[in-house]
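can u pls check wat happens w/ zinc ion
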Amino acid sequence: MARTDDRQASVSAVEADGTTGRRYARVALDVPIAPCFDYLVPPALDGRIAAGDWVLVPWGRGRKIGIVLGLADTAEIAAEKVRPIMGRVDEAPPSSSAWLELIDFTARYYHRHPGEVMLPAVPKLLRTPPSARQRKESAFARARKRFVAPAGSPSPDMAAAPGLKPAQAEALAALEQGEGFGVFLLHGVTGSGKTEVYLRFIASRLAADPIAQVLVLVPEIALTPQLAERVRARFPGEPIAILHSGLAEGERAASWLAVADGRARILVGTRLAVLAPVPGLAGIIVDEEHDPSYKQQEGVHYSARDLAVLLASQRRIPVVLGSATPSAETWQAARTGRYRLLTLPERASGAPAPRIEVLAIDRDMPPDGLAEAARAAIAEVLADGGQALVFLNRRGYAPVLACGQCGWLSRCDDCSAYRVLHRVAQRRPQAAGGARFRLVCHHCGGEQAVPRGCPACGDTDLRPVGRGTQRLEEALAQTFPEARIARLDRDVARRRGAAEAMLDAVHGGEVDLLVGTQMLAKGHDFQRLRLVVVADPDGALFAADFRAPERLFATLMQVAGRAGRFARDGRVLVQTRFPGEPLFAALQAHDFAGFADRMLAERREAGLPPFGHQALLRTEAAAPDDALGFLGAARDALLAILAATPELAAHVRCFDPVPMPVARLAGRERAQLLVESGSRPLLHRALSRWLPELDGLAGRSRWQLEVDPSEI
Ligand SMILES: [Zn+2]
Ligand SMILES: [Zn+2]
């Protein structure tokens, strides 16, 4: 009855003032308190506002630019509190229904609000209202001016293009023949010529339609310039936009807008580029599709690889996933024929694959961490004028500092982790006596000076335990005093231009011995590199995360691929205390398929992805009991939902809450609760019923849900 009364009341109001009822717009705004707010559509804009439109709205005493998610006849807040929209941003590119669908799907799939997906996908500069001073020229006008298309022919420059090997030609033919939606796995080792196939695929997509656009995703910012350079060389007349989080705001706005306007026909970018509006999208490439960097780790935890596949199906276009070591998910899809497998079996240069040897080592190693055979191999390569690389995926000087007397260890005060000993770069090295060190927590960033004596017993016998890249570099300098040594890791790369300078030195032949982390493994072509020594991969063998071996295999294949990419006698030595591990045997045989098929069999047995689907509820609180208490209540709520629906109960499994691997971070206690199901739709149905209950249970704990978590 109340409903009828309301309706009558509103009808009479309309009759009374003679207008056609009030219209409200749900506007996505970038503010921390909520992802969207209701605004009144003023009479002047009536009929001129639709979902996807950009609008200027009042916010407190200021103004904000937001995007309309939808229109409604009722407001979610009291009607008298609703303020009117100030204007429509006519310069903004029209939001296509395809883009709105993508945003909507992403929000539904990751169980987030569409506003939380949409606003971060738009460059900040474009959603900042102009100040009075800037009125003359808007951010849009400036961004449009800034993006300059190159002059020249839009057809590809094939002068320097290498000829195709038969496998490349076959792969390309398959890509070009495909019509409509199709997912292609381009599986090929480092140097097998995947990039050449990408370039020709781009050319064929662009040639087919004058408004066609192609999206190229790369896993890391550091890799965008290299690929963009190759694309630019091939398409000298084609406007190319670059998008990643490392760009200055102005550049990012210019690139984004050029793509949204259709002026840039090629977009090269990192994961965030998948959410850019690309009206003429005709093809997608995801390079190194297995790379964990495709998973966003803040805000909405989306997988750009998975969204790229979705986007391709939505737009009915082909998507190419390239990798030497595809993810378990992709490999399984290729094995079952859901994705089409295109294999590039050989190196395009014709060089044979590097020889991989496994060296058994003991726990006690000399200071340089090298087995005798590895040291001899390096000496031989150096004597011959070649380059060698020692790979250690651990930055800093030593992972922990210990007291030789009482066993004190350099734990972080705020995290359940050790602070890592770091040698600090000195401005005036000659001024101070010897190197300076600090203890740094890699989780919270907390730092402290190295204590003179042990904080527990006062003894001065404090020793670094273990080895990071800095210590390795130091020890190698003693073992090979003649060699010119350079190091690359995140600490070096943090200094502006340092990584580029180091790589230039390597390419210029000024470096004999390279030391570094994963940063060295990806994408670089070192012409003189003939030997790679993997110093200590064992930590990743027994990590708690079930994806750790998959990642280790990918990293080792990648770093091995650096050796002898151009030489005929490339060699890789892997030092391990566990030489019998099947992972190393597969690596030695360059047998990804063997490794992956065994891994998939294990996953199938255990019901793990890609055979099972997961969601992880994470929480943090000041006290461990609060975190675990909330998750306990959350689990009970889920169990009640499952009990009420036999179909869900039969297929959805809820685990017990547990502290996270690094349970304490920056002073907050963290815990997690895993939900698993063999059926994706049933998992999502359970989640949609469960999530609305969580805020009521959380109390002071903060929580977030991650669908398809990348790390557990
Ligand atoms: Zn002590
Ligand atoms: Zn810490």
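The chain has 20 helices and 28 strands.
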